[in-house]
Amino acid sequence: MCGIVGYIGDKEALPILIDGLKKLEYRGYDSAGIAIIGKDLTVVKTQGRISDLEKKLSTEEIQGTIGIGHTRWATHGIPNDINAHPHFSESKNIVVVHNGIIENYIEIKKMLIKEGKVFRSETDTEVIPYLIEEFYEGDLLKAVNKATDLLEGSYAIAVMSKNERDRFIVVRKDSPLVLGVGDHENFVASDIPALLQYTKDIIILENGDIADIHKDSYTIYDRDLKPIRRNIQRIDWKIEDAQKGGFKHFMLKEIFEEPNVIKEAMRGRIKGDSIEIPELKLTKEELSSINQVYFVACGTAYHAGLVGRYLVEKYLKIPSTAEVASEFRYRDPVIDKHTLLFVVSQSGETADTLAALRLGKAKGAKTIGIVNVVGSSVSREVDNVIYIHAGPEIAVASTKAYVAQVEVIALIVLYMAKILGCLETEEEKHLAKEFNALYDRANNIIQRCGEIADFVSTTKNIEETFYIGRNLDFALSLEGALKLKEISYIHAEGYPAGELKHGPLALITPNSLVIAINTYKPLREKTLSNIKEVKARGGKVLAIAEEGNSNIEEVADRVFYVPKTRDDLAPIVNIIPLQLIAYYMAETRGLDIDKPRNLAKSVTVE
Question: What does the pLDDT average to over 413-424?
Answer without folding.
Answer: 96
